[in-house]
Amino acid sequence: MKRATLNLMGNVKDLYLTCFPNENKRIVDYLFKSVLKPEKTIIEIMDNKVVSALSMVDGVIMINGRPIFASTIMMAATLPKYQNMGNMDKILNTVIDNLEHSELVSLVNTKNVDLFLKYGFRVLYRRNEYELTRDDVQRITNDGCIYDPSAIDMLKLYSGFMRRFNGYRIKTLEDFEKLKQGLNEQGGRIVAYYENNEIKGYAVMKVENKVIHIGECIYSDTLSLFKLLNVALQQRHTVYLNVSSAEKLDKLFPNAKYKVKDFMMMRLNNPELFNRLFNCSLVSVEEILLLSSKPLYISDLY
Asked: Has this prediction a pTM greater than 0.85?
């Protein structure tokens, strides 16, 4: 077991696509090109090939008004022939030991819940996914809507929107510039709604076959939300809108199908230090939900 090198990252990508052949290749290509770093990727080699690997992506989340460093574990995979041999457990034991000495909490997506439950991760972030068609959304004009809004405008709107939430990712201007570049490489688009030259909403859209997935939708009011959805529904008949579990949009879309989906897991790495910092007495990571009346929010995987 060791850290990957730049030369081995291509092998790690091949490993991941072998394990998850239905993943969007453009997204995977972008992640390995622009997000994942060799020094943050741990691999296991057997028979002269990479058989198991995972990566970590640095990040910062806001908990009760304090910025907390929290890396996200991504792309965990083991070749089928080498599964059930302890390869991923060996990697995770090393990674978890390091995290317990370097950060208070860590995140992972819900692609493999059972695996990460064993290591103390718990599902804390959930999202409401609404399946919307033309019949669900009031028709209004596209006046004020543009593609490719500026990164600074998006940052300002995001920062204001997040004041009502807890546990969200702290984003910088550079993060939004990277989001725009990455989305373009992945074939996605960002649409925004402006009123009196002020941004009122934006939606991050990815087209997959005959549907559009909106992974992040930030809006200041109902009009802004409807404007963004109208643009999306002009491109595809079906739009999947993902919002936080606290955003109850049933009254706006009473006939739309929706479901609550597990999205991200969190691990409390150092309860003693966390309790001293926040002057609390948490025993489990689930109790983080009790620290604030504000609901948790995360809209992206890293």
From this structure: yes
Give the separation between CA 128 and CA 158, rounded to whole angstroms: 19
Tell me the torsion sign for CA atoms 197, 61, 175, 172: positive
For residue range 150-207, what is the model confidence (pLDDT) as tens digits? 999 999 999 999 999 999 999 999 999 999 999 988 889 999 999 999 999 999 999 9
Amino acid making up residue 298:
I
Measure the CA–CA gap between 112 and 262, rounded to whole angstroms: 11
The DSSP line for the chain is -EE--GGGHHHHHHHHHHH-TTS-HHHHHHIIIII--GGGEEEEEETTEEEEEEEEE--EEEETTEEEE--EEEEEEE-GGGTTSSHHHHHHHHHHHHHHTT-SEEEEESTTHHHHHTTT-EEEEEEEEEEEEGGGS-----TTEEES--HHHHHHHHHHHGGG-BSEEP--HHHHHHHHHHHHHTT-EEEEEEETTEEEEEEEEEEETTEEEEEEEEESSHHHHHHHHHHHHTT-SEEEEEEETT---TTTSTTSEEEEEEEEEEEES-HHHHHHHHT---SSGGGGGGG-SSPB---S--
Measured in degrees and rounded to the nearest 5, phi and psi for residue 270 equal: -140, 80
Distance CA 94, CA 90 (A): 7
